[in-house]
Specification:
Blueprint lengths: L1 H37 L4 H14 L4 H10 L2 E3 L5 E4 L5 E3 L12 E2 L4 H16 L4 H13 L3 H11 L5 H15 L5 H13 L6 H8 L12 H48 L6 H22 L8 H22 L8 H23 L17
Antiparallel strand pairs: 1-2, 1-4, 2-3
Helix pairs in contact: 1-2, 2-4, 3-4, 4-6, 5-7, 6-7, 7-8, 8-10, 9-10, 11-12, 11-13
Length: about 375
């Protein structure tokens, strides 16, 4: 009896293995056909290839279609398809592994294939395993929702386990449902907007229920729209209040530092320093110099250039201040008008020195990624 049970179990395992192998082979062959269509150079086949690759279930489907959207999908003369990653490496579109390639031509999109790609990517991103990918896709769709994407969101909304993704999906639905002919859908949209953190719908809500006017005529819908409008305007008020306070403190701190420097210099040394702004300029160009040094010598560590730029800017300005005091200023103590003329001349010299070294054009010091963006 035991031998029969073991034999049946072995038979079932063998059958399941054979079935899974056949499914995997079928998926792989569908992936191969889809990639061949993408590399064919024919616009009609390209559109079919996008759809087939998305339906193949292959792990490479989303990276390949992302590369196609970004213009980084290439095909060689034989029709083989390759991806260029962020570092410029060429990868096989099938395995996503480094691959050799000859002459490559970018896979170009026409209007039809681009629309197909946008719809396909929306579906793939919203059904991706990664929560971060789903959140990003839902947030992007909430900014510019389309009727096609909204139909997809409706089918996935109740099944989405992530609360943040679900909130962005609900906002995308709300933006289109505001224009719905069904009053119930407009009420649901107003409630979703009231509970969200979105700030972009003030103009739409004002057009519907603005003071003394408005396109919304249904008396059962208008109170909900007014509540949503008050909520949006309240969020805008607090965001502006906080951001203006931060901007004011930031600009004020620079002006305070400049004023304190002038006051201390005159109060302690009786020197009218007309080159004070140029000392700030030296600190700024020191920061620019360190950033360019990192970008050219150690691009992988360029995000952390400020760790060296801040002390380097202090040391550069300190060294220049000591040099000017030793050579010029110490001989003019007690003669404030002469220090004014001397430091004005020094300011012109420093300005010309910077123009000779860095050029007359303005330069940019970009924030690292960890200091960019906002909340």
């Amino acid at each position: 009896m035991l031998s029969r049970v073991i034999a049946c179990a072995v038979l079932l395992l063998s059958l399941s293995f054979l079935l899974s192998s056949e499914v995997a082979q079928a998926d792989e062959s569908q992936q191969d056909r889809a990639l061949a269509l993408l590399g064919s150079g024919d616009n009609a086949k390209l559109t079919d290839g996008i759809t087939q690759l998305a339906n193949s279930g292959a792990e490479s489907a989303l990276p390949v279609l992302d590369a196609l959207e970004a213009g980084k999908l290439f095909a060689d003369p034989s029709g083989a398809v390759f991806i260029q990653d962020a570092e410029g490496n060429v990868l096989s579109a099938k395995t996503l592994q480094p691959a050799r390639s000859g002459a490559l031509k970018v896979v170009a999109l026409n209007n039809l294939s681009r629309r197909t790609l946008e719809e396909t990517l929306s579906r793939l991103r919203l059904t991706a395993k990664s929560v971060a990918v789903r959140r990003q896709a839902a947030r992007k769709l909430s900014e510019y929702p389309t009727a096609e994407a909204v139909q997809l969101i409706r089918s996935l909304y109740s099944q989405e386990p992530d609360a943040e993704t679900k909130e962005w999906m609900g906002l995308a639905l709300a933006k289109l449902d505001l224009k719905s002919a069904d009053p119930k859908e407009r009420i649901a949209a107003a409630k979703a907007i009231e509970q969200s953190s979105d700030l972009s719908l003030e103009a739409d809500l004002l057009a519907m229920v603005g003071e003394g006017k408005g396109t919304e005529k249904d008396p059962t819908v208008r109170p909900h729209l007014r509540a949503a409008l008050r909520s949006v305007q309240g969020r805008i008020f607090w965001v502006n209040a906080v951001s203006n306070t931060v901007y004011g403190l930031s600009l004020g701190s620079v002006l305070v530092l400049a004023a304190l420097g002038l006051a201390i210099t005159f109060g302690l040394m009786r020197v009218i320093n007309m080159a004070h702004g140029e000392m700030l300029m030296l600190g700024a160009y020191s920061t620019f110099f360190i950033r360019e040094l990192f970008l050219n010598s150690a691009p992988a560590a360029a995000e952390w250039y400020l760790a060296l730029a801040v002390p380097f800017a202090f040391l550069t300005t300190f060294a220049m201040g000591v040099l000017l005091e030793r050579l010029v200023i110490r001989h003019l103590y007690g003669r404030p008008l002469e220090t004014l003329l001397a430091t004005w001349g020094l300011s012109l010299i420093l300005i010309q020195l910077i123009r000779v070294v860095f050029g007359a054009q303005n330069v940019t010091v970009a924030n690292p990624d960890w200091l960019s963006g906002g909340w």
